[in-house]
Automatic annotation (TrEMBL):
Protein name: DUF6702 family protein
Organism the protein comes from: Ponticaulis profundi
Amino acid sequence: MNQSQNWAVCLLGLILLMVFAGLRAQAHPRKEAEIEITFNANTKKTEIVHRYRVADAEQALQKAKGAGLSIMTDPEAQALFGDYVEARISLKHNGKTVPLTLVGGEIADGWLWIYQEADPLPEEGLYVFRHSALMDRYGEQVSIINVRLYDQVQSFILSRTAPWATFRLDGKDTYAD
């Protein structure tokens, strides 16, 4: 092989390495969950809908409870993950815990959906929402919270170092005296 051919082979190898490295980086998406808090006018309940990647949830559950568990096929594993999430979420209104009821869950398109509900949330007062599911397993895990109540949309990003959000629904300043 002459020098030009060596350079061509090296350049092709470098290009292939970059392509495969890029594909590998895309194979492990960002660790994030999404949670929507809304009011359902039909049921007259506040709904809390969680969305987790099945792969992340299953890996965390297997590390905690056993390697053979499958969220995709095992209803007991699904229930265990639901219990895990319930233990890592709380909503307080003016310092008092808002009771949340686990309604159920489902798996669709690679996502694990968990549904909770609560009585309607009062518009007045201060809320603190805490959510730390998967943050104990993945340091880079974040949860994006969207609160869509009383014609307001508020979004928060929770992380291991800040697993809570403080907000109001009445339009007043959250941090005012």
